[in-house]
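To: structure subgroup
Subject: Chain for Friday's discussion

All,

I'm putting the inputs and outputs inline so they're searchable in the archive.
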Amino acid sequence: MSESIKTFPQILLDNAEKYGHNKIAIREKDYGIWQSYSWQDYLDQVRDFALGLASLGFKRGDVMAVIGDNRPELYWGLAAAQCLGGVPVPLYQDAIEQELHYILDHSEAKFALAEDQEQSDKLLVLKKEIPRLEYIFYEDPKGMRKYTEPFLMSFTHVQELGRKFGQENPNYFMDEVNKGKPDDLAIICYTSGTTGNPKGVMLLYDAVVRAAKSFMEFEGLTENEEVMAYLPMAWIGDHIFCYAEAIVAGFTPNCPEDTSTVVHDTREIGPTYIFCPPRIWENWLTQVMIKIEDAAWIKRKMFHFFMDIASKAEKLRMAHESVPIGLQIFYQLGRFLVYAPLLDNLGMRKVRVAYTAGEAIGPEIFEFFRSLGMNLKQLYGMTESTALISIQKDGDIDPETVGTPAPGVDIKITENGEVTYKSPGNFVGYYKNPEATEETLIDGYVYSGDAGYITKRGHLKIVDRAKDVSKLTGGTLFAPKYIENKLKFSPFIKEAVAHGMNMDYVAAFIDIDYGAVGNWAERRHIAYTSYTDLAQKPEVYDLIYNEILRVNRSLSEDEQLRGAQIKRFLLLHKELDPDDGEITRTRKVRRKFVAEKYDNLISALYSDKDSVAVDATFTYEDGRTTTMKANLSIREAETF
């Protein structure tokens, strides 16, 4: 019942009373040293900042934007706004000014909390265009000494104002926290905007707390978990796992020193519980394969031999079949020689449960990490459900599905194959967008926009975005994301875009992984000067050709998708970039935009041309642009 649900500020008060200074609430690595804060420290920091906000006129219902990498101060700022009945709106830290302008203006944010000088500069430019934005606060003072704007203040200065305000108004903080109700708006999370402007998803405390409790009960999470807080705070995944669950369960998020030190910092912490989108698992797999390629031949042979053993054993386990004794013996030997050392190198030896979510993961990538002995499971969720729709159960894993409905969730498939659901974490609507709300939220069910079905085992299988699933002219099912995920299992492919809707065959754009392919080229003494130069090397085309053959062989084994093998492909001259509008901040392809921008490349793929000229424009983070010309080769691929 809602009556038993508290707001996050109220739960924070309970945690401070229960744990005091005896338990770590959050850690941050700064200058190479882990800084720890107890639950009492957490509350004190939040209280001081909240009172500082109040002294500056922050009122119930006001919106505060939060932007930057994961830092305790940004989480405290988020909680402080909630303490006063305000609504935090987290933003993607790598968003360009145009994207930020829309959300800041649309959300009617009056306050903004930034991590550092870089983020503050973005907001200072936007404040000139958005007069409603009254105050900007920053956490890191580095480089901010000569900024003199009266509305620009440091986090610590606001806290000083708060301590003074608290002395003059001793009951203000508790009075405001106690006014909070379960049906108050807790946060507005903006979607990534694959088809247009992002939508503001309104989530109540009731929904977010229920979702957090459901995850905790399902996985048996306790106050002793350690998690890494490194994903964008604007993403619902970070909010539910590193803020909501951390407060409700009382466990400890750990903020890495920098995005470049995540793997190293993870090894130091040894998390027990992790959550990563597929692109992170893909990146880790790429790093592993690069290191293996650089290893001595005997280590390469041993790695591939034991990974083959692990793959066979894991496939039998997932199929609920017995593993032969000989395979078990070799697996245990592989655990000692390969699997455990590799998990330890990734900092995941202590991981008890791991999730992948955000979009579909390639079955091969999923199987690879499970083969190591990691309890990796697929989770299906959306911002609109507070990430809670379906989860794979221990002992009931299928790499092709996203598990069974989570506790309290009802899933229905419409006649046209669209997945709809009713979840305890359901949103109440899109901010200032009743039309979109009426289209998406019908009779308590959210229409996901994903095409899928329930398997004989009761699992939900997502095929693709409903609007993207179509057929080739010959009648073969065309699910572009499914094909793209198979391609991205390769350590040499960072991104892919499959084409084929209403066409005779499937063709593809391929983005090479610059680091992995560059490493491969250097070992073979292949000289190159840039991404474009490397991508157009005949040797690199041969490399990617073999990866496409692997995918085509796999597709040939699927009766429904046999006719959707890739027939022609080209290697793009640049990486698909969110700054250029080609992918979202969560790395989802904006298909319509890509199709319009590169229509000449698509036309060439469906012609008899063996090359196509391209005149490209690049956008830098500060808005500057540059152009380049290139001639892209087109290759035919063998089908089976």
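Points worth raising on Friday:
Residues 212 and 321 are 34 Å apart (CA to CA).
The mean pLDDT is 89.

D.
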